[in-house]
Design a protein that fits this description.
The complex is a heterotrimer of chains A (255), B (440) and C (494). Chain A is α/β, with parallel strands linked by helices and 255 residues long. Chain A contains 10 helices and 10 strands. In chain A, 36% of the residues lie in helices and 26% in strands. In chain A, the strands form 2 sheets. Chain A has a 6-stranded mixed sheet, with helices on both faces. A 4-stranded antiparallel sheet of chain A has the order 2-1-4-5, with helices on one face. Helix content of chain B is 63%, strand content 5%. Chain B has a 3-stranded antiparallel sheet. With 440 residues, chain B is mainly alpha-helical. The radius of gyration of chain B is 33 Å and the shape is extended. Chain C is built from 18 helices and 2 strands. In chain C, strands 1-2 form a two-stranded antiparallel ribbon. In chain C, 41% of the residues are buried. The chains are: A alpha/beta (255), B mainly alpha (440), C mainly alpha (494). Chains in contact: A-B, A-C, B-C. Chains B and C meet through helix 2, helix 10, helix 11, helix 12 and helix 13 of B and helix 8, helix 10, helix 11, helix 12 and helix 13 of C.
Chain lengths: 255, 440, 494
Amino acid sequence: MNTVPYKMIGKDVSVYYGEKRALFDVNLDIRENTVTALIGPSGCGKSTFLRTLNRMNDTIENCRVTGKITLDEDDIYDPSIDVVELRARVGMVFQKPNPFPKSIYENVSYGPRIHGLARTKAEFDEVVETSLQKAGLWNEVKDRLHEPGTGLSGGQQQRLCIARAVAVSPEVILMDEPCSALDPIATAKVEELIHELRANFTIVIVTHSMQQAARVSQRTAMFHLGNLVEENDTDKMFTNPDDQRTQDYIMGRFG
Amino acid sequence: MTDLASPAVMVSSRSAENRRDIGIKRRYAAERRFRAYGISAIAIGLFFLAVLLWSVVSKGYTAFQQTTITLPIEFSEKVIDPKNERATDPKRLQTVNYPVLVRDALVKQLGIDPKKRPLVKQASDMVSDSVRTQLRDIVVADPSVIGKTIPVTLLADANIDSAFKGQIDLKVAESKRKVKDQQVAWMNELAEAGVLKKSFNTGIFSFGASSRPEAAGVGVALVGSAYMMLIVLVLSLPIGVAASIYLEEFAPKNRLTDLIEVNINNLAAVPSIVYGLLGLAVFVNFAGMPRSAALVGGFVLTLMTLPTIIIATRAALKAVPPSIRSAALGLGASKMQTIFHHVLPLAMPGILTGTIIGLAHALGETAPLLLIGMVAFVVDYPGSPLEPSTALPVQIYMWANEAERAFVERTSGAIIILLIFLVFMNLGAILLRRRFERRW
Amino acid sequence: MSTSLLLLIIVLIGFIAYFTGRARSLALTGGKLANLHSLPGYHGSYVAIWAVLPAALVLAAWLIASPLYIDSAVRAALPGSVQSQGAANVQLALGQVKSVAVGLNRLNAAEVAAIESGSANLRQTLAAKGVALAGEGEPYMVKAAQHLNATRLHSRWLMSAAVLLVAVAGGLYAIRNIAARFRARNQVERVMLGSLIVASSIAILTTIGIIGSMLSEAGRFFSMVSPTEFFFGTVWDPRFAAAGSEAASGQFGLLPLLGGTLYIAFVAMLFAVPVGLFAAIYMAEYASPRLRSTAKPLLEVLAGIPTIVYGFFALVTVGPFLRDISTQLNGLVTGNYQNFIQAQSVLTAGIVMGIMLIPFVSSLSDDIITQVPRALRDGSLGLGATRSETVKKVILPAALPGIVGALLLTASRAVGETMIVVLAAGVAARMQVNPFEPMTTVTVKIVHQLTGDLEFTSPQTLVAFALGITLFVITLCLNIYALYIVRKYREQYE
C-alpha cells in the first residue's frame, strides 16, 4: 500500500469555530485511488476535517482553519487558489440526498455547464449518460431523464447526487455519511458504487458505521475529541489497532 | 387515606355527594362568556367589512350606467361658420358656440316654441356642457359634416342622469330640487321615444377630470397610476431583490447589518406621508424634478414599497433550505452562481407574492402623492411620466371633496374600480402562493 | 452629441465589447472549453463592464459637475455692476441669461445680428420663439448668453470625447487582460457584489434622506419661528401672508395638532384593541380550522383596503350616520332635535380608523399568541383549567410583551394615518375634550400646508417639515421600541 502516491496531505490542520477549537493539529494524508474512511464518535471532528478538504467550511461564518492542506502540491488555502476551481477538483456528496428541484438531466448537467466541460447538446447528453452509468442509475432513470430528481427514492436520489458529483470529473470525492439516510438495500448499492468509483477517483468517506468502514475502505482514520487518534490500513485497524481508544470504539465501548 | 379499611363503594358515594366545590358552573359560564366575546369580536370586524363594502357598492354601482340622449344634430353652416372663414382661419372651428346646435335639435325634438326663452334654457340644461368639446371634436376631425344632419349620442346632464336613475325624490317641492317638473316630463317623453336611455358608462373609464360629474372619469388617473406602478415595479423589484440577496447571503453579521435590519423594519412602518415630504424635499425641491409628475410619484412609491419587498424577499430566501446551497457549492458553483442559479429561482414565488402585495399597497396610497402635487386637475392623458398626471386614489380624494350628489356616485364608482384592481392583484398573489407552495 | 445618444453609443460599445471578449476567450481555448478558468460569457461580461462602467461614471460625474462649473464661469463673466448687487440679483440675472441662451439657440444668424446691433428688441424676438423673459433684458445678457452657449457646447464636445475615449480604452484594457487562466468570473462577481451592496445601501439612504431633508427644511422654519413657540404653542393659526410680506406670519403652535392626533389615535385604539385582541384569541385558541381559514383572510381584507376608501366611508356613511343618530337620541331625550355629534368629529375619525386597525391588532397578536409554546398551554389544561382560564392566566401573561409590542406598532400606524383624518376629522385646530367635536391632526395640517402653491421660503410651507419631523420622531420611537420588544419576545421562544 505504501507505494500508492498521496493525493492530499493535511499538515497540522486545526479548525476553530470562533473561540472554540474543533480540530487539533491533525496530520492526515489521503492516498490516490483509495477509499479513506473517517470514523469516530459524534462531534469528534471527522466531518469538520472532511469539509476542510474542499473548503466548505468557508461558508460557515467565523470558522478559521490553520495548518496546511495540499492537493497535488497546491496549497488549497493559498490566497491564489480559486475556491470554485478547488471544489471542481474535490467534489462532495452530502449526508442527506439533496438533488436540485429540477429534472434529473439538469441535475447532472449543471456541474459540466458551469465549468464549461461540455458545449453541445450531444456532449451534454454524453456526460449525463456516462455519469449516470458510473453511478449505476442509468438503467433506472434513462426513460425519465426530464422528470424531477426529487421524485426518485432516497437511495436513487443519493446515487443521483453521486452522479452529479462525478459529472464534474473531480479528482477527489468527499462523502459525508452518504448512507445515513438510506435503508439497507440502498446502502448496499451505494457501497457497491463506492467500490467501483475507486478505480477513477480518490474517495474520502465519513461514516458512523464500523461495518461500512470495514466494507468500503482501504485506509481508516479514527478521530476522537478533535484529535486524529490513529490512521492505518483498514484491515489492521479492525483486527489489531495500535491505539487503545480505537479498540474501545470499534468494540462499541463508547460512541 | 386514613381509613384504609373503608370499602371502595363508600368512597365513590362520598365523592358524589361531597365533591369539592371547584366552581365548575361559574367557571363554565365564564368560559362561555369569553368565547362569546371572541365570536362577537370577529363578528364586529366582519360586520364592518360588510357595511363598508355595501356602502361603497350601493352608492357606486349606478356610476357604471350613464343616461344619454341621441339627437339628430344639424351641423348648420349658419351657426358654425357663417362667413366661411374656415379655410383661411383654422382656429375658427374651435370657437364656435356648439351648444346652440344641440339646443336647436332638442327644441325641435320636443316641439318647444323657440321664442319662449326660459323653456329653451330649461331644455338645453338637460344636456351636459361637455357637448361643446364633443361636437367640436367631430367637426374639427371631419369638417365635411358641416351642413349635414347626423344623429349624435350626447351625455345627459348629471341632474337628469340622477333623476332618470330614480335617485332624486320628486315629491320634494320643485323649488328645492335641481330638476324641474317640466324637465322630468320632457325626460319621460324622450325616454318613451327611445331618444333618452341608460347605457353602460364607458366614459368613467376614459374621461379625465371635469367639473361636470357626467363628463368626469378615471381614465387619466388610471394612466397616471399605470405609469407609477410600472416605475415602482421596474425599480423596486430588482433593487429590493438585490438588497435582500446582499443582506441575507453575503452581509457579515455585525453592528452595521443589525442597524440596516432595524432601519428596514422601521422604514416599513414609517407613515406614508413622511415619504411624501421626502419626495417633495429631495426630488422636487432639491433635484428639480417636475411637480405633479408620475415619475416623482413612482420614485416616492418605490421607496415606500422597497422595505415591504425586502422583508418578503428575505423571508423567501431564508425558506430555501441550506442543503440546496451546499449541493451547488459542493459541485464547485461560486456563491453568486449558487444564488442566481438555484436559491433565487426557488425563492421567486415568495418574492413575487411580496411584490404584488407591495404594489397593491402602492396602488391605493394617497397621502404622499398629495404632497408632491399630484392633486391636480388633469384633463388630458399624460403622454409621458414627466407630464402632470394624477392617480386613481388621488382622483377619489378630489371627488370626495366635491359637494355634488352625482360626484358621490362617481367617487364610489372609482372606489369600486380601485377595489377590483386590488382584488385581482391579491388573488394573483394568493394563486401564486398556492401554485408554487413547496414543502421541503 | 445629446446625452441619450451618448448613452446609446456606450451601450453599443458594451455589446461589442461583450462579444469581442467572448470570442477572444473562445479563441484561446484551443477547442477545449475546460482550459478556460471562466466560461466565455464571463470574459465577455468582464470586457463589457470595463467598457461601460467607467464611461458611465465619467458621464454621470460630468453631468453633475459641468452645470456647476458653467454657472460659476458665467457668473464671473457678468459685469461688475451686476456682481456688486448681492447674491439674489446675481441669481436673477443668471436665470435671465439662461433664458436668453435658450432663446438664442432658436434664432437664425440674421436675427442674432439684429439683436446684437440693437435694432431688434430682445424680449419680443425671444417671445416670438416661445421663450418668455422675466425682464426687459440688458445688452450684456446677450454677450453672457453667447458665452454660456459656447461654454456649454464646448463642454458637451469635451464630455462626448472623454466618455467615448474612456469606454474604448476600458474595453481595450480589458481585452488585453483576457487569458485562459484569467479569472474573469471572479472579477465579474465582484462587480455584481458591488451592485448588491449599492442596492442595499438605498434603504439606509432613504432614512438619511428623510432625516436630512426634514431637518434642513425644518431648520429653515426654526430660523423664522422659534422652536419653543412651535413645540409649546397652543394656537395654530398660520395665516397665509401675501407673498413677500414678512410681517404677520401667524402662530404655529404644535400642541392643538398633537392633541388631536393623540386623541383620535386613542379613540381608534380604544375601539380596535378589544375587538382585535379578542378576535385574535378566538382565532388562535378556539376557532375550528374552517372558521379560521375563512375569517382570518376576510379580516385581513380590511387591511388591504386603501385608507382613502376608509376616509370616504367616514365622510359619506359613518359621519352622517352618527350625526343623524345623535339628532334622534337628543330628540327622544330632550325633545330638541339638534345633533350633538358633528359629522366630522374625533369619534367619526376614531371609529373608522379603529376599523382599519382591527386586522393589524388581530394578525399581529395572532402571530404572537401562536408562538407561545404548546407545553405552557398543555401544562395549564392538564391541571384542569378551562380554556379561558388558560388564556387569561397563562397565555396572555406569557404573550404580554409581544402583544404590547404589537399594540405599539399599531399605535404608530394610528398616529401616522392621513387620509381618514383628512376626510373625517375636520380642520379646526383646537384643544378640547369633547369627542363629538371636530379636531385636527398633524398629518392633516401637513397635507393642508403643502397642497396648493408652494413657496419654499415661507414659514407656512416649511412648517410642514417641522410637523413631519415631529411625526417621524414619534413613530420612530414607537416602532423601534416595539420592534425591540417583539424581537426579544421571539428570541425567548425560539
